[in-house]
Amino acid sequence: MAAVRGSRPTTWLLFLLVAPPLLHVVVSLEPITTGLAIAAASAITAYLSSEIYCGLLSECCQVDKPFNSTALEDDLTEKLFGQHLAHGIIYKSVTRFMSNENPRKPLALLLYGCTGTGKNLVSKIITENIYDLGEESKFVHLFVSTLHFPHDSLIPRYKDQLQSWIRGNTSACARSIFIFDEMEKLHPGLIDSIKPFLDYYNHIGGISYRKAIFIFISNAGAHLIDRLMPLIINKRKRRELELKDVEDVLYDDLYNKNSGLWHSGLIEKNLIDYIVPFLPLEFRHVKQCVLAELRLRDLHEDKLLASQVANEMKYVPKDTELFSDKGCKTVPAKLDLFL
């Protein structure tokens, strides 16, 4: 893994650019008020140099930046379709955590469900609402199981590297974000190596992890479609489904040996703060995804075209064809064929 990035350079040059006019005012004041004027000049200089540095010269850790919950709500509404449960949990949990100046532990989210239902999209939305560069930010760290940890024989080395990476980057920025994709393929030993950073510790080795965010993404819920279908059909409206309606199915599936979590203690020790279920998507949701893709490409929102593209998707189970087999995952590729 790459070395931890260096610390912030000095801003003495910015001080020289900003300070002279302020110091000119100071020398004309009475001795009694000179101290106050110097303090004010220093504060203004520090503020301006910080704003210039973080806005123009480099990206800064947003540990104390006010969080815009309205922007998060807008993004979830405009970009995430058919996931009212995930929408509510993400909005409330992230807003509360980011507004808490002294959280007791890091925020740990498990995004769980079928492929193409919006898990990676939600991860992207969260990071973009904290850092302007989103997942490209130097304070956001993405790990893909099959890419970064491909060999079981190297698990001890991976554990040391992963722990060192988390320690180093959190010491550099308390508001670091760590994303683990393909959790169902992550070795249980690696999952356990993350556990100490998620617990209720004020410090570990002099470093506080309480303002960090850990996002775990699992696609192991492919067979949730069959188990959730009766719940969705028996409700007059899909949006009437509450978290308590799907929790039993969700937890049964999480402890399945294919989930990637059955050997770990993350859930048993309550280190995951929120398990966020992603429901299978229906035809109307796929249409919304097509329209969103057209907007992303600055093209006209053609509802007829959206229906045509959505019709090209495969739907399951065979007798009802209620849910999209791959959610919205292949929408961009299908749309290319029509354009």
pLDDT < 50 stretches: 2-29, 31-39, 45-50
Describe the strand arrangement of the main beta sheet, using strand numbers. 2-3-4-1-5
Mean pLDDT: 82
Mass-distribution shape: globular
Number of strands: 7
User: End-to-end span in angstroms?
Assistant: 41 Å
What is the H/E string?
HHHHEHEHHEHEHHEHHEEH
* Rg measurement, Å: 24 Å
Counted by DSSP, the helix tally is: 13
Major β-sheet profile: 5 strands, parallel
Percent of sequence in beta strands: 5-15%
Structural class: alpha/beta
Q: Give the helix level as a range of percent.
A: 40-55%
Descriptive report:
- Helix 9 runs antiparallel to helix 10.
- 50% of the residues lie in helices and 9% in strands.
- It is built from 13 helices and seven strands.
- With 339 residues, it is an alpha/beta fold.
- It has a five-stranded parallel beta sheet.
- The protein has helices at residues 12-27, 31-57, 69-79, 84-99, 119-130, 145-148, 155-172, 188-198, 224-234, 243-254, 283-296, 303-311, 331-338, and strands at residues 107-113, 140-144, 177-181, 213-218, 274-278, 315-316, 323-324.
- Strand 6 and strand 7 form a beta hairpin.
- The longest helix has 27 residues, at 31-57.
